[in-house]
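Usage

Read records sequentially. Each one opens with the input sequence:
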Amino acid sequence: MKNYISIKEVKQLPQNSEFKVMGIVSRFNRRKDRNNNPFWELTLSDTTGDLDGKVWPLSIWWNTQGGEKFPIDPDNCGLKFEGSSVAVYGLIGEFREQLQYSFDSVYYLDQKEFPPQTFTRCSPISYEFLEASFRNHIASIKYKPLQDFVNALFFKHGIWEKFHVWPAAVSIHHAYTHGLLEHSVSVADGAVGLSKHYSSFGIPVNMDLVIAGSLLHDIGKTEAYSMFPSSSFRIAGNVIEHISLGYYMFMHCAELEKLEDDITMALAHIILSHHGKREYGSPVLPAIPEAMIVSTSDDIDFKLNYWKLQTDSLAPNSEVTDYLSMMDRKLWKGIDPR
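and closes with the structure output:
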C-alpha cells in the first residue's frame, strides 16, 4: 500500500501528476480508436469516489496473484476485471481543456489479499437511522389498506432483502451500499415537505400516495442492478430498465394483495412517470400533483448527491468542476454559509 493514495486525493492533483491508486473496477469497456487500435475505458472506485480513466494500447497489464507478477493480455487472460480489485499507475493529462486520467499500468491484484468489498462505499448515513426513517414513513400512511400493502410489498414479498442494501445507481448518485434506501428516504422526506407546502397554498395533495410513491418509485432497481462485489447492471437493467421492472413488480404485488384499482392506478402512474421526461426514460409524464412532487423530489435528490460527489473531489484551490455531460454544465462549489 506504500505510496498509494485515494481516488479523492488523485482528483485533487494537478495536470502532469503521476499517481498510484487501488480500487474495484466498476466499469470496463473495450473500445477502438480511429486507427482501429484497442483501448479500454476503466472506472475505478474506492470508498472516496470514482475515477474514469483510459488504458491505451501501450499500457502494460499485470497479474499479481499468488505473490508473483507477470504480464498478461486483458483480452485472453481469462480474468474478469469488472468487479475485481486492481491497482493502477497513471498520469494526469489534458484533453479538450479537461483533465484526463491515463492508466499506464494495470495490476490485477490477489483477490484474497485485497478483497473487492474493501473498496466498496457505504452510505454516509447510519443504516439504523435510514431503516427507522423508512419504517416511520410507512407508519405515517393513514389509510390502513395502503399502509398494509406497502408493508406487504417490502417485507412479505421479500423486496426488502435486496432493497435495504442495494445501490441507487451503478455510478453517478448513491452508487454504494444502502444507497437505494438512503435515496428513497430522502425522496420521501423532500416529497412530504413539498406536499405540506403546496397543500398550504390550496393544492390538493394526497399525502399517503406521495409517501407510498416515494418509497416504491425505485423498487425496480433491485432487479436492474447487481450489488456484489460492486454495483453493476444486470442484463434486465440494460434491456428493460428499472422503471419498467418496478412497474411490473408493483403490479404483480398489487394483484396478489388485491390493492384497490384507483390506488393501483395512481401508484403505477407515479412509478412510470418519476423521471419526469420521456427522454429520461419515463413512458408517461407526471399528470397528478403526487406524481409531480415525487418526480421533483427524486430529481433534486439525484442532482444534489451528484453535486456533492463532484465538488468534494475538487482540488483545494478549485471552485468549479470540469464540464459534466450528465448535468450538461459545470458545477460550482458555491460560497460558505454565513
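Summary fields computed downstream for this record:
- The chain has a mean pLDDT of 92.
- The two ends are 40 Å apart (CA to CA).
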